[in-house]
Amino acid sequence: MIAPDPATDRVLIVEDEPKIARLVADYLEGSGFDCHHIDHGDKVLPWLEAQEARPELVLLDLMLPGTDGLTLCREIRQRWPRVAIIMLTARVEEVDRLLGLELGADDYICKPFSPREVVARARAVLRRSRAAEAPETAGDGNTLSLDEDGWRALADGQDLGLTAVEFQLLRVMMQSPGRIFSREQLMDHMYRDHRIVSERTVDSHIKKLRKKIAEVWPEREIIRSVYGVGYKYQPEE
Prior knowledge:
The protein is built from eight helices and twelve strands. By secondary structure, it is an alpha/beta fold. The protein folds into two domains: about 120 residues, Response regulator (Rossmann fold), CATH 3.40.50.2300; about 90 residues, Winged helix-like DNA-binding domain superfamily/Winged helix DNA-binding domain (Arc Repressor Mutant, subunit A). A five-stranded parallel sheet has the order 2-1-3-4-5, sandwiched between helices. Strands 6-7-8-9 form a four-stranded antiparallel sheet. A three-stranded antiparallel sheet has the order 10-12-11. Helix 1 packs across helix 5 and helix 6 packs across helix 8. The N terminus is likely disordered. This is Two-component system response regulator BaeR.
């Protein structure tokens, strides 16, 4: 038996429809992923706990026998924050979409879907996840990195002392360097209870985030305003 390549990305497919699971696995394995399939929600957490090395990505169906997908999403994110999660759902209501993402999912795909789309989304989510984990290096050797387990941002190894909201804002923007986020998009990541807040609240948190970064790097501007649109994370060349 050939041992799996340790460099191969591992994917856990949690799906109770065997035809869908097999189709997705075939396409992922054909694209170089190593897949494992579980068809019951109650089996997911025990399987993950038993693994010496957790999968890099979980494809998680929303509607499952036993423990449902949203509950599993929350548990996985709390226990293993570095594992990426893509939710698979036939329920397209906006509340379900937002709730899944707010519980910690990195993306969602609505059924019916193309298996090629799943492969593309999996690659994109893993790229973003690794970009967030890797230190960003400036020309002068300064580094900014995220400690996902401790919810800390480190500038040259110094803890910036961010609040949970400030950490979330920085994390979201660091996952997509150069992407412009509207205030509304950032608000979706700031508050899990979907409270109604003013867009000025985002501006206030960004201002505090910038101030904390400036205490370590007074000459750098990595959180930039785009007039009339929003904000972006732009590490220096």
